[in-house]
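Discussion board: Methods & Data

I've been asked by a reviewer to show the raw model output for two of the constructs in my manuscript, not just the figures. I'm not sure how much to include, so I'm pasting the format here to get opinions. Each protein appears as its amino acid sequence followed by a line of discrete structure tokens. Is this the kind of thing reviewers expect to see in a supplement, or should I convert it first? Here is construct A:
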Amino acid sequence: MATGTGTYHQQLAEQKRGAILDAATRLFMADGYAGASLARVAQDAEVSRATLFKQFPTKASLFEAVVTHQWAATSDDRDTPEPGDLARGLRTYGRRYAALMSRPEMVGLYRLVIAEMPRFPQVAQTQFETGKMPFFRELEDYLRAEHAAGTARVDDAVLAASNFLGMVGGYAFWPRLMVVGWDPTPAEVEHAVDEAVATAVARYSVA
């Protein structure tokens, strides 16, 4: 019985956390970092202020959780490729990155960071360190593994990862911030990923 009770309380806590993150995401996007209040987050999430402050005692900690949550949005079907097939591995990372960056919430998050950066530089630092960097480092590690396996020659994994994600993001994400109506189809995004993969394979693959 105790185990069942513990599981129930854990599930309830996870549901409340999810409701808080969803409400916080909406409010950050709508009102900006400065305008979003923790009291309003608690109200919209239908939780007590005590519950909110227990999990997120500051606005900064809540924003960090929102960023982490958004970057982990596709982690349920996450496939970490093994070295040995550079094209397959890059395609896995490229498609995952394109899917993440194409989400409306991610576009809104970046717009928020750009708008708030002059007044709150920590929001940009949070977005970079807790959001993009873990993904970026995972791709770096994969490229180093391919290099160690002898299937690719990647002398600078940081530059290689940056160039590859830049090719994908240059089509799938960045125009969304500036070009009204930019909304490529899934097939067009997949084609852009495949072109980035082909370019990287031509540069780094060992025949």
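Construct B, same format:
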Amino acid sequence: MKRVILTSPSGVGLTYADRADMVVPLIFRFVWGPLPTSHHLGEYLTGGYFRGDPEVRWSDLVARSPQSGLAHKELGLVWFCKAYGVEEIELWFDPSPSNQLQLVWILDYLRSEPYAAERTKLRLVDFDLLGADGDRLRDHAIRQLEVTEPDFEDARIAWEAYRSPTPELVSGLLNREFHTLPFLKPAMEELLAELPSPASGLGATEAQLLDLIAKGHNRTKELFEPGGLLETRVFDQWELGPLLEGLASGPMPAIAGLDPKLSTLPRHDARGRNAAYRRSRLSLTEFGQAVLAGREDFRRHNPIRRWWGGTLLTNERLWRWDREGRSLVSP
């Protein structure tokens, strides 16, 4: 039986686990920055290049296949599956918010492709793919589910909700049951928790950062490294840097000690920026201590312009999330 696995970058290790004829890591992350347009996402999967973005396609991280060589480099994803008689398309996405967003996106795409939809299976991966050793990826028993039309519809609803210009539809998903997608609702709640809180103006990860720095953890290496002190499942280490910079800049910064050279380095200078982060020795300002204690609202004194799914957060349109009450607070 010819089998293809679709997974996230976290699941790239499945390439060597002998689970399928081909493993396709889908590169997009949807938790930081503006979302790619539907056109860009479609071109990525159908094999086209698009102007203004890196020339990247679904096949770029796929190894040579013993059966088809490099033929997949010239075809769209579904076209390739048809041409080579793929009988099963397995979806391997772990419970992290980024993985669950990738899952609903790819399900929404596959539902409109009858050949692929009929062959799509879902693996309930209940552990983090990133860092899982080869033995676990190869031998661990993982439940497989059929994907039905209601499941495709659930994915469509969730993906459209996340792409909408306010978080209201995502908040509404918390009242909905997703029987075949059991990790989706917890992931959406984790994403909502990254909206500013009504009291401090901090998202969940921002609050963790301030709390750890207040406890004396002043080096970015111990804060950012995977499996480190910062217990975030939403952002990766490359997304934490801009989040930290937002807390350390503005009219009233909450954090002091961030290397000032960061403000002059271009975003693409990964080596220079990483060195600047490592030189930093972080501490809370007096204002930061008040924010952490809930006595001050960080967003009342500092600007924000950040994307949360399809929602552009600004000081004028600042949606907030009450984590204790599990409720959305409109601007």
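Answer (T.O., handling editor elsewhere):
This is acceptable in a supplement if you add a one-line summary per construct. For B, something like: The mean pLDDT is 91.
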